[in-house]
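Regression test case RT-17, inverse folding.

Input:
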């Protein structure tokens, strides 16, 4: 019996990943409705291009701040963009200038001035458990 338990434990540890945990503490969510949509990017080439995030996560908004834990990203360099899909239409609604009409945010709390932020402004390295604070811009 002990041999069986050791075998099962060894087998499970073989398949276990050593991905670090990324904790996102999101604040200043304007309203308690809709979803937060998070895009994770790993190159400057595709940063902020629709449909080019390597991972996309969607979480229901249930408070004006939210903690999200992501544990399926391998060690590496990433940049995050997110938006508050208040009307649940699965897109970031923008005005005629292309500026989001719904709340949005970026890793490193980058605040765009006259153009969208760059990958280099938003990038961070994930090599161990990491916590990022991201303040939503409205």
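Golden output:
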């Amino acid at each position: 019996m002990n041999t069986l338990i050791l075998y099962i434990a060894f087998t499970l540890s073989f398949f276990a990943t050593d991905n670090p945990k990324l904790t996102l503490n999101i604040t200043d969510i304007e309203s308690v409705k809709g979803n937060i949509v998070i895009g994770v990017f790993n190159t400057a080439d595709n940063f902020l291009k629709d449909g080019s995030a390597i991972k996309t996560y969607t979480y229901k908004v249930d408070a004006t701040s939210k903690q999200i834990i992501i544990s399926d990203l391998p060690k590496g360099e990433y940049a995050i963009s997110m938006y508050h899909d208040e009307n649940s239409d699965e897109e970031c609604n923008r005005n005629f200038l292309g500026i989001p009409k719904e709340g949005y945010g970026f890793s490193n709390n980058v605040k765009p001035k006259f153009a969208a932020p760059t990958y280099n402004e938003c990038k961070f390295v994930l090599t161990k458990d990491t916590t990022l604070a991201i303040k939503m811009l409205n």
